């Protein structure tokens, strides 16, 4: 991959510092002066755009997977899994798409800024997730990309629906559908992602099929599994706290 912006750890770390500084500054400003004018409208507009961008990723990454499936010589599950999860894609669009997907995680910083600008609060789950996702995509989409498409596909699908909900699609159609769908897409993407990374680590390290020497380093798969597990734990924690709070209010 040719050198591109924010594709190395120092530049990603710098972005984290800038992100934290801007977020803290917005929070201090809002505490002193109140919500920033038009911030709710900007939040909805940005969410609508990001939902459309996520749809783009769903279609493009889905197309990559279908083309990989089309190159399998048989419908054998093991062969197909090896083809998709262990071998780097030779599709000419793969490298550019991986980079765009990585860049999209920096765009998500704006989501934090918008929420803070409206006077909203940022919990541990929300801040940790947005702060660390660029490191996850650096590891899996850029450093060790074999099989990156699976989590990215379901992650993009979840974000397409989530940001559509934030943009107010439910209000537009007059039916509350997203509150019922989003919990399933949220946990499904995480469970599938963790399972994929665990399978890749197992195959590459245990037994006669071990492929330590093949293609890419294995630490990104381990890092990805750990981060996804932390996200899942934080989401469960927030859900339990919310449920406890509701029971107290009742």
The whole-angstrom Rg is 20 Å
Head-to-tail CA distance between termini? 56 Å
Shape descriptor = globular
DSSP strand count: 0
- Major sheet attributes: none
Could you say which structural class the secondary elements and strand pairing correspond to?
mainly alpha
Membrane topology: Multi-pass membrane protein
Protein name: Very-long-chain 3-oxoacyl-CoA synthase
Transmembrane segments: 12-30, 42-66, 146-169, 181-201, 216-236
InterPro entries: ELO_fam (IPR002076)
Summarize the structure.
By secondary structure, the protein is mainly α.
Can you walk me through this structure?
By secondary structure, the protein is mostly helical. The protein has one domain. It contains 10 helices and no strands. The longest helix is centred in the first third of the chain and has 32 residues, at 39-70. The protein is globular and about 60 Å long.
Descriptive tags:
250 residues; 77% helix
Question: Helices, strands, pairings?
Answer:
Layout lengths: L8 H25 L5 H32 L6 H9 L8 H14 L1 H9 L6 H20 L5 H19 L1 H5 L4 H28 L13 H31 L1
Helix pairs in contact: 1-5, 1-6, 2-5, 2-7, 4-6, 6-10, 7-9, 9-10
